[in-house]
Design the sequence.
């Protein structure tokens, strides 16, 4: 993915978001990250919509005084209408007053009242007695400095980056609970770079805080496309997380149709009749209480009825059901999904492979996720592997090669670098290598020729997969990495290694004798 251009303003400073988060986290005091998350993110969101409104308001004032007070002028530019009591300047001026919590709640209510799409989305409990009002005032002062020297789209981009960074840091601070709504950015980028969602409908049936959509939009922009070329759809069963997603997308200026109900995508599929060109999803792993016993006759289970005790194959089939005729999907699942034979899962996997529903499998390195240490993999599904891309859904109209009867296996377990003691990230180079391999294998123009690389990738036929009992673990197919060429004759190597071993033995004996002598001097010898 192309890197974003930078300038000399605070948007470009390396670690700007990290420094800001550190400062904000200091203000948290003894407050739980799960509570503070909504306090901080709500204020960042308020700053964003207020900045966007004020910028457009100034432009309209210069053109036409009457137009500046016309709500439709703002809606036409995908900008929220912000009444006077909701504007950041009003809150900043009153940040030190003891009733600042009430003023923030009033601002949130006023904004919701004037913007139908934000109804029920914004946090409105800043006036609660337990919330430190001095901390609130200091947080307003801190956030006031974000993008202060930037204008228009630059300001929007900085606030969007800050919101995204804060989301990731809160996911880390909350551990397992926080990680449930957040898919690590590097994992999302692998999905996006491989699927290339340039145009069409993009869907996530368990969208969490909306990270899949943010990265999809970034991809389109950075590759010279137009944001209006993709339409965003999603569903989320957790109301609090749905609110985070709505704010996350609004901060980015992304128009979307994100549905919420507490029954979830299996039991109340809000978008049942829609089909999508690209689906990106990170469903909760190995969910056992998904209510599968009530869905035994569901038409989505075209490869077999998923077990009541594990939702992995329900997610895969729900996603495949929603693919358009030439649609593709990328799904994050637990490694067990590639090989499990429990409760009929092996038979479902076999049916999917034999129907050519599986396009590619990627084994990921461990420690990528905030929420779980369970090793994960990526499933790539395709409705039609005879070409997979047609006309407008391609960046340049090309079709892909016929991949029927083949599956690409990529073993990326040795990739990534540790960013702290517990978590790993895939680098830009790692992501590019994985995506380029897939693109070459699919036969994309300008992607180069595909070749199997021992230890990393292998294009396997259905016959080869059958021999492995339809197990889809990449390690079974890619083999071992080739060793570097070794021109040293065997006899010479044995002599060299034997001499080296004898030297090491002698050194070990010398050290043992020295230690024994020292112990003797201390009165501990034999």
Sequence:
């Amino acid at each position: 993915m192309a890197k974003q251009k930078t300038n000399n303003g605070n948007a470009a400073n390396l670690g700007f978001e990290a420094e800001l988060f550190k400062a904000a986290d200091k203000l948290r005091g003894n407050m739980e990250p799960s509570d503070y998350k909504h306090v901080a993110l709500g204020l960042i969101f308020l700053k964003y919509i207020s900045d966007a409104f004020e910028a457009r308001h100034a432009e309209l004032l210069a053109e036409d005084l009457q137009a500046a007070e016309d709500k439709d002028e703002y809606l036409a530019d995908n900008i929220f209408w912000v009444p006077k009591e909701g504007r950041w300047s009003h809150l900043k001026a009153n940040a030190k007053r003891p009733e600042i919590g009430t003023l923030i709640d009033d601002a949130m209510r006023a904004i919701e009242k004037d913007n139908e799409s934000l109804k029920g989305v914004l946090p409105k409990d800043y006036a609660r007695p337990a919330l430190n009002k001095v901390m609130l005032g200091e947080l307003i002062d801190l956030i006031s400095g974000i993008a202060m020297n930037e204008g228009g789209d630059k300001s929007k981009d900085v606030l969007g980056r800050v919101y995204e960074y804060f989301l990731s840091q809160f996911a880390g601070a909350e551990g397992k609970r926080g990680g449930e709504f957040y898919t690590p950015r590097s994992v999302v980028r692998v999905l996006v770079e491989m699927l290339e969602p340039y145009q069409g409908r993009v869907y996530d049936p368990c969208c969490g805080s909306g990270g899949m959509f943010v990265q999809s939009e970034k991809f389109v922009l950075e590759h010279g496309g137009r944001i209006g070329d993709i339409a965003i759809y999603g569903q989320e069963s957790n109301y609090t997380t749905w609110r985070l997603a709505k704010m996350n997308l609004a901060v980015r200026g992304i128009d979307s149709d994100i549905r919420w109900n507490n029954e979830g995508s299996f039991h109340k599929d809000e978008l049942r009749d829609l089909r999508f060109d690209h689906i990106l999803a990170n469903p909760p792993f190995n969910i056992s209480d998904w209510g599968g016993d009530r869905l035994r006759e569901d038409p989505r289970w075209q490869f077999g009825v998923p077990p009541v005790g594990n939702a992995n194959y329900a997610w895969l089939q729900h996603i495949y059901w929603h693919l358009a005729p030439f649609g593709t999907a990328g799904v994050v699942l637990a490694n067990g999904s590639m090989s499990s034979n429990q409760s009929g899962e092996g038979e479902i996997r076999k049916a999917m492979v034999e129907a050519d529903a599986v396009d590619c499998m990627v084994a990921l390195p461990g420690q990528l996720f905030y929420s779980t240490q369970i090793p994960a993999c990526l499933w790539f599904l395709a409705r039609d592997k005879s070409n997979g891309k047609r006309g407008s859904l391609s960046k340049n109209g090309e079709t892909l090669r016929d991949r029927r009867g083949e599956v690409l296996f990529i073993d990326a377990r040795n990739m990534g670098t540790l960013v702290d003691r517990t978590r790993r990230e895939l680098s830009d180079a790692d992501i590019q290598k994985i995506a380029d391999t897939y693109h070459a294998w699919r036969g994309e123009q300008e992607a180069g020729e595909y070749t199997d690389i021992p230890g990393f990738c292998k294009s396997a036929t259905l016959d080869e997969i059958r021999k492995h009992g339809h197990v889809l673990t990449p390690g079974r197919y890619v083999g071992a990495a080739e060793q570097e060429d070794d021109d040293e004759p065997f006899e010479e190597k044995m002599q060299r290694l034997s001499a080296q071993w004898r030297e090491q033995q002698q050194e070990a004996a010398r050290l043992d004798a020295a230690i024994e002598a020292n112990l003797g001097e201390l009165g501990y010898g034999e």
